[in-house]
Amino acid sequence: MKIVKIKLLDKNAKIPNKINDTDACYDVVATSREDYGDGRIKYGLGFALELPLSTQLDLRARSSVHKTGLILSNCIGTGDEEYRGEYMAIFYHVIPTLPPYDVGDRILQIQLRNRENIGFVLTSELNKTSRDLGGFGSTGK
User: Fold this and answer.
1) Which residue among 39, 48, 68, 97 is buried most deeply as judged by most CB within 10 Å?
2) From CA 39, how far away is CA 100, in angstroms rounded?
3) pLDDT tens-place string over residues 124-134
């Protein structure tokens, strides 16, 4: 088990938690909401983290996001071990007839991942494969 230091920045902030031990992600709750008036809504999560070395945190939309008409603006947000500010997210409210999240709602999931540094080696040729240059639906499925 990795240990992650968490600093609560808001009186309503909650430590991320899983409903079931087997859940892949931890739910996080909105502690603030700022509507920019142009379809963007920024939510604060009310906490800062100190992640272990070579660890990244991914912020993902919850599967129930479809009930809100919201889309997470950058699809998946990423935090690394050097960031110490409040975690937050901006959503686009693309279906205004559906109610967006409120303060106190579970709005995102977070997942920690080990990160490995890689080295790139310059080459003029890559090995051929059966797929080779096929992409964008080239398998016909």
Assistant:
1) 68
2) 11
3) 998 988 877 77
> Which residue is it, tokens 């009186």?
11
- 141 is written with which tokens? 């499925």
Tokens of 24: 């892949």
The structure tokens 């009310």 sit at: 46
CA distance 103 to 46: 11
d(CA 23, CA 91): 24
* H or E stretch at 135: none
* Domains, in order of start, for the chain: 5-114 (2.70.40.10)
Measuring CA to CA, which residue among 126, 108, 112 is closest to residue 64?
A: 108
Measure the CA–CA gap between 130 and 132, rounded to whole angstroms. 6
- Give the model confidence (pLDDT) of 35-78 as tens digits: 999 999 999 999 999 999 999 999 999 999 999 999 999 889 99
Q: What does the DSSP assignment read for 19-50?
A: SSTT-SSEEEE--EEEE-SSSEEEEE-SEEEE
